[in-house]
Amino acid sequence: MDKFNSPLIPYILDMLSRQPQLCTTKDELIDNIKDIILEEHIGSFGSLKRAVEFALEVGVNLGVISLTNERVRMPFNFRKTRPKFKVPSGIRITPRLGRRVVKQRMPKTAAKGIKKKKAGRKNQKKRR
């Protein structure tokens, strides 16, 4: 088996992301993942426990899973946190001023390759 590839890693990360503290034990992980995993993912390992242990080892090698005292956890937290410093509020731009600035930056000439419509009968010269 490739030491950097395991078909169970996406399932494990999904289970961990659903936990409130982003961590769980190996036994809880195996119990939760048992119903989801297909037999083809387990076949080369012989048992679900071996497959999960190998996937955890691969996850640790890749740095996406952390193992501490039989707890499996994600080593990072994507939850929303308050910023450590507040961005100072600058000059407030009104929508009207914003539209005016955008209009000034828009090109005033027609794009190349676009032909204008021909004038109607009123504007055409009569041929005699």
Automatic annotation (TrEMBL):
Lineage: Eukaryota, Metazoa, Ecdysozoa, Arthropoda, Hexapoda
Record's protein name: Uncharacterized protein
Residue ranges, annotated region (Disordered): 103-128
Domain of life per record: Eukaryota
Compositionally biased residues, Basic residues: 113-128
